[in-house]
Design a protein that fits this description.
Length: about 210
């Protein structure tokens, strides 16, 4: 596709040595990661892996997205969803908390517990942010939107401020439900997050195999 092809253009890729061990990433999230109503090869982890490989990065990105998952649900399944040997996690959760009007304190607590547990295992985290809908009111929006930058600062994480950046309000980038990205939407998300993922990869060292 045209947008995916564009991901290969620009500055010269940082080529890895041909015999370098691939970096194993796990994309851990909800339907935005899982690829709701999309073919597996059009879901965020698969599109991201192809884009990174086109940039000369030796990576394998596992899809650990579960549609409908909340941050507390993610915490419950974290240990068995992130296998030993994982080199880094892209953490994308919170959208369903926001849609349900969950107390931001609950969301913050669950995200911080996941980050702490992964750090204890020596697994770096790239945190992807979510933003609250304005119709939830200014107090809720302020409390929810502060979660991600606050956690990134306190835990020294690479942060991508808003996972849906670039597609909000664009009907052509969404499925007919108006909530989930379609193929074009996923490619737009990947194009936006790609530089941040590459910066994250520069922090990550592949573990022993």
């Amino acid at each position: 596709m045209v947008l995916f092809a564009a991901l290969t253009l620009g500055t010269a890729p940082a080529r890895a040595a041909p015999d370098a061990a691939p970096i194993k990433l796990v994309a851990f999230g909800d339907s935005l990661t899982a690829g709701y109503r999309l073919p597996a090869n059009a879901a965020f982890p698969a599109v991201l892996e192809r884009a990174l490989k086109a940039r000369g990065r030796q990576v394998a990105v596992t899809n650990a997205g579960v549609s409908g998952d909340t941050t507390t649900g993610g915490l419950d399944r974290l240990d068995w969803s992130i296998p030993d040997g994982t080199d880094g996690v892209i953490l994308e959760l919170g959208a369903n908390d926001m849609l349900r009007g969950t107390d931001p304190a609950v969301t913050r607590k669950a995200l911080e517990a996941m980050i702490t547990r992964l750090k204890t295992r020596g697994i770096p985290v790239l945190l992807t942010g979510m933003k609250a809908s304005p119709n939830l009111g200014p107090d809720y929006v302020a409390r929810f939107d502060a979660i991600y930058p606050d956690l990134a600062r306190s835990h020294d994480l690479v942060l991508y401020p808003f996972f849906l950046d670039g597609i909000v309000g664009d009907r052509s980038a969404h499925l007919d439900d108006g909530l989930h990205p379609n193929v074009k939407g996923v490619e737009t998300i990947v194009a936006g997050i790609l530089p941040t993922v590459e910066r994250f990869l520069d922090r990550v060292k592949p573990g022993p195999r």
